[in-house]
Amino acid sequence: MIKRIIRRLRPARKPVVINKLLELKKNGNLVSQHNSDIDSLNIYFYELDNGYPNVSVGAECFLENNITIYQRNSKVKIGDRVYLGPNTNLNCYSEIEIGDDVMFAWGCTVMDTNAHALTWMHRVNDVIDWKKGWQAKDWSNVESKKIKIGNKCWIGFNSIILKGVELGEGCVVAAGSVVTKSFSPYSVIGGNPAVFIKETE
């Protein structure tokens, strides 16, 4: 049974939590293909425009994860036959694309933005602005870049994938890894930061 919960938080300080998946589908923010189990999917919005397909889910998926949408035009694209485990978080400011036949274990984080500027002078007011609400935050010096996970990848539990990463088809990420750069198809990678370990088939 699809959860029908809206938890109202203080205005603009935190995202609205939306589990009303049927309403999101009706409004065009969520597109889901046939026979996908998304009953346990949670979607959080900082900004929301009806009609924009922020989240698209392919066929035969099983999703138990969380998705946070930062902008009106942020986009998460999930392919066919994808599993995303509990407490796995996709944090999307720009774009996250996950191919077909991909598995994420539990507790993973995928984040396509730094969320804060690297230099102190550009983030000096971040805490004060954040207290005022999402709209007050200055994102002009915050770097964001699309993440792309290729077909047939397997991401081990508690792994972190950061902005700009592209994993080729069939990559395997060892549990607890922090992936900061791209890897070619059928690479086994692991560590913090993740490095190439060996090839797989």
Low-confidence stretches: 1-13
Described by strand count, sense and barrel closure, the largest sheet is:
8 strands, mixed
Find the structural class using helix and strand composition: mainly beta
Rounded mean pLDDT score: 90
Total number of helical segments?
A: 3
What proportion of the residues form beta strands (DSSP E)?
25-35%
Strand elements, count? 21
The CATH superfamily bears the name Hexapeptide repeat proteins
Helix content: under 10%
CATH topology (level 3) name: UDP N-Acetylglucosamine Acyltransferase, domain 1
**Strands side by side in the biggest sheet:** 1-2-4-7-10-13-16-19
Write the H/E string, N to C.
EEHEEEEEEEEEEEHHEEEEEEEE
Per CATH, which architecture?
3 Solenoid
Termini Cα gap: 39 Å
* Envelope shape: flat
Radius of gyration: 17 Å
Structure description:
This protein has 201 residues and is mainly β. It is 9% helix and 32% strand. It is built from three helices and 21 strands. It has helices at residues 21-27, 120-123, 126-132; strands spanning 6-7, 16-18, 30-32, 42-45, 55-57, 62-63, 66-69, 75-78, 83-84, 89-92, 95-98, 103-104, 109-111, 147-149, 154-155, 160-162, 166-167, 172-173, 178-179, 187-191, 194-199. The termini are far apart.
